[in-house]
Design brief:
Elements lengths: L3 E6 L18 H16 L1 H8 L10 E6 L7 H14 L7 E6 L6 H9 L4 E7 L3 H6 L8 H11 L4 E8 L6 H14 L3 E6 L7 H8 L12 H17 L3 E4 L2 E3 L6 H7 L4 E4 L4 E3 L3 E5 L3 H10 L4 E6 L2 H12 L6 E2 H8 L8 H5 L3 E4 L2 E4 L7 H9 L1
Parallel strand pairs: 1-2, 1-9, 2-3, 3-4, 4-5, 5-6
Antiparallel strand pairs: 6-8, 7-8, 10-11, 11-12, 13-15, 14-15
This protein binds iron/sulfur cluster (SF4).
């Protein structure tokens, strides 16, 4: 099992109303200090892990993912040293995938050419919607026209795999605008598509407004959950009819373009996380770095501890992860293997779910039923009770 390398770039040009990540707008001076700190963390990670008593995964990593935040905001002078630090710190002959998250309005031909030359072969664009009304309400800085322009530039420099993200549940979204976004996205024929349902929680401005029953950020215009579920199901039909394979609850790809790095999360492969708020997993423990970028930089400079959460994965936790992460994949999970590995009897929890048609069992393989993907959390809760 080859690990992945994740690098967190927490900087954004503005804060989207629905965003609950530890990202934001930070002073420009912090960026170069942060790049230095991340590069240092990458280059010195063996000694740091040893000092903290963390085991290093045995196999060499084979994927790199620059996520955020908005990694595409970095200038080439800031981005390339980070990639060099990874390449010089890990013994990998061939990187199977090097991905970068980008916002459409930040794409330029010059930057994209440097990315390609630096080995980046996959770009994930936060399109989110093709309606300017929804993009404006969400606090996004790009507009509809920026998306095809960005895709064209990325293709022209030879980026082999382009992902477009859409969000279902944005303020102002209607069935009509949702289908307009889907049709516009399909017309661009990206190699990969992710559709995320709006996450409602107190950590985002829109989420806390929704929970409080308020109207700021057009919260009253967020479509209800039933509509979102219906539109999700309609998207599944449209994407399948256009030749996209649905392989994970929120992800579709053309043949040969599944996301290799992200797939490691669902199959519980190890990953190294570098940067503020980055999470890591070595097979036995999960840990996270300090979330605040300025604190993280300060800790790196002064050699203070920079890990703020650390948790050993117990057999019970590993079992639960196998079920709820594994079932996100439409290939399903192998029941016998999991039952043997964890000494559990999962089959006795199935009759009600099978009867309700929420899951399907074929031989040893248990899968979520395609008609229940949008309510998968309820299925997980029942299976893991
Ligand atoms: S660009 Fe992404 S990370 Fe930044 S605020 Fe918006 S949603 Fe959050």
């Amino acid at each position: 099992m080859a690990p992945g390398v994740y690098i967190q770039i927490p900087f954004c040009r503005s804060k989207c109303t629905y965003c609950h990540f530890a990202t934001g707008v930070f002073p420009r001076e912090l960026i170069s200090a942060y790049v230095e700190s991340v590069s240092l963390e990458i280059r010195t990670h063996p000694a740091r892990y040893a000092a903290a008593g963390l085991a290093i995964p045995v196999a060499a990593p084979d994927t790199i993912y620059l996520g955020g935040g908005t990694p595409s905001l970095l200038t080439p002078e800031n981005l390339v040293p980070i990639l060099n630090a990874v390449r010089e710190s890990f013994p990998c002959a061939t990187w199977r995938e090097v991905s970068l998250e980008a916002d459409p309005e930040t794409i330029t031909a010059e930057k994209s050419a440097v990315w390609r030359a630096a080995g980046i072969d996959r770009v994930s664009l936060g399109a989110q919607s093709f309606s300017d009304v929804e993009l404006r309400a969400a606090g996004r800085l790009h507009r509809f026209g920026d998306i095809p322009r960005a895709v064209e530039i990325l293709r022209a420099v030879g980026i082999a795999s382009v992902n477009l993200d859409l969000i279902l549940g944005l303020a102002g979204q209607t069935r009509e605008t949702w289908h307009h976004s889907l049709d516009s996205l399909l017309a661009l024929r990206p190699e990969h598509i992710s559709i995320y349902m709006l996450d409602v929680d107190e950590e985002s401005r829109l989420g806390s407004e929704l929970l409080a029953g308020g109207t700021r950020y057009r919260a009253q215009q967020v479509p209800d959950e039933d509509s979102q579920s219906e539109w999700f199901d309609e998207a599944c039909v449209a994407l399948s009819a256009s030749g996209y394979g649905h392989y994970e609850i929120s992800n579709w790809s053309l043949p040969g373009h599944r996301a290799i790095h992200n797939s490691k999360y669902w199959t519980r492969e190890p990953y190294f996380g570098f940067g503020s708020g980055a999470h890591s997993f070595n097979g036995q423990e999960r840990w996270a770095n300090l979330h605040d970028p300025a604190d993280y930089v300060e800790a790196m400079r002064s050699s203070r501890p920079y890990i703020e959460q650390r948790q050993r994965v117990t057999p019970q936790m590993a079992f639960e992860e196998e079920v709820f992460l594994g079932l996100r994949l439409l290939d399903g999970i192998n029941l016998s293997r999991i039952e043997r590995a964890y000494g559990v009897d999962l089959r006795q929890r199935l009759p009600h779910l099978l009867e309700a048609g929420a899951v399907a069992l074929e031989g040893d393989v248990l899968r979520l039923h395609p008609a229940h993907l949008s309510v998968s959390n309820e299925v997980f809760a029942e299976l893991l009770l």
